[in-house]
Amino acid sequence: MVEERTNRRPLKSPDRPRRRDIALTAGLGVFIMAVLALSGEMEAGVFLAGSLALAGLAAVYYLTALTAAEPSARPAEAGASLRPVEIDACEAMLERLPIPVLLIGPGGRIERANPSARAFLGLGAERGLLSTALRQPRVLEAVSAALRGERGAAVEYSTLAPLESHVRAFVEPIRLDVPGPMPFRAMLVLADDTSSKRAERMRADFLANASHELRTPLASLSGFLETLQGPAHDDEEARDRFLAIMKEQTERMRRLIDDLLSLSRVEMNEHVAPTGSVELNDLARDVTEALRLVAERRAITLELTLADTPAQVRGDHDQIYEVVENLVENAIKYSPDGSQVRIWVEAPRTRDGAEHMPERMDPQSGRLTLSAPPLDPDARFAVVRVRDNGPGIERRYLPRLAERFFRVDGQKSGPTAGTGLGLAIVKHIVSRHRGGFTVESAPGAGSVFSAFFMLAPAQATAPPAPPSGTGPVEQTAGAVTKV
Length: 483
Known about the structure:
- This protein has 483 residues and is of the alpha+beta class.
- The chain has 13 helices and 15 strands.
- It folds into 4 domains: 76 residues, no CATH class; 96 residues, PAS domain (Beta-Lactamase, 2-Layer Sandwich), CATH 3.30.450; 76 residues, Helix Hairpins; 210 residues, 2-Layer Sandwich (Heat Shock Protein 90), CATH 3.30.565.
- It comes from Alkalicaulis satelles.
């Protein structure tokens, strides 16, 4: 057994100078009275009584200072014994803190990082240089200044890839009692301001877009009301015609507001990936059944082909449902009466296999990826494709399909006029799910829109499925389903 020896220096009481001053003052008083007594200015009895009184008073003050000094040493000893417990408590708090916190040492090397920081910056088990994980020159300059002992700073920075984010970095120097020429460390705290920044921008965009798009229907409603109150007050035929137009404009404003609110909700959480799970085969079947009556009104047949294997994807059920619903609704809207709309699900697929069909729908068709997932060669996807028999889209319009309020020439008015927000909503939902969104189209040949989502971990390891669409066909009212 090895005996541990600790050389402790006696605690130096901060009250020792006060006790020394008390003794010196008392001695000086006795000395002055002794001089006065020897010179005959003070009687011997007075000198003796005064000396005794001064000595007693000094003794009382000395003992008071002595008893006050003893408790002062005990807290220091208690603090020294509690220090390991305090350190453990601080480390436990740091590990559970939801805000990323890092301790940067000399040379910009990461010495400590809590779990939130490791997840936020994608740090591995090894602690390397901060510059390899955070490529922000202003933040690195602030960290270098803190390591030199200079004043801390707050730095804001933004990134656009892989997703837009806004971060505020707080840097403060910390002096440690360590040997060496560099006693300073830099504490780096990262605050994610993406949600607040997006909320501010969306509020302004919503007001600007809503005021711009609502101005025309509101002006029409105002003109019709003035006409009904004036010249057409007693004209029943004009009144019925104007009321029908007013109803159509009101319905358009309602759809526009609903789409704007939906787009705002999606953009608000686009930087946060969903954690749920959705079976894409079942979801596509539900969407087809829900839109069957809409297709029947125009004698359009919906042909649904499901994947041969389960297509369990990671995502939010309601948002993926909205994606498929928007694509199928657009296909029905732009297809002629009595035609056919095809919907099919494929899984599993690599990224290249999910983006586009193996064969082109037309030799002159244009293909474009509107939104792409992060590069991951091991990722597997399930894809839902929707093909219409509409007029098709010219190649020059493809890059703008997912822009807000963009409508192709010839689709800005009439019964097929939409709000111009449906494909923008689809793109942002797919981006939030870390999936992809592509289009292939040719004038006169229709269009194919594909949205693909990452498979759940249990499905991602399955072997690629053969091309679907070879199963038996079951005829239903207004819809064809291949299973």
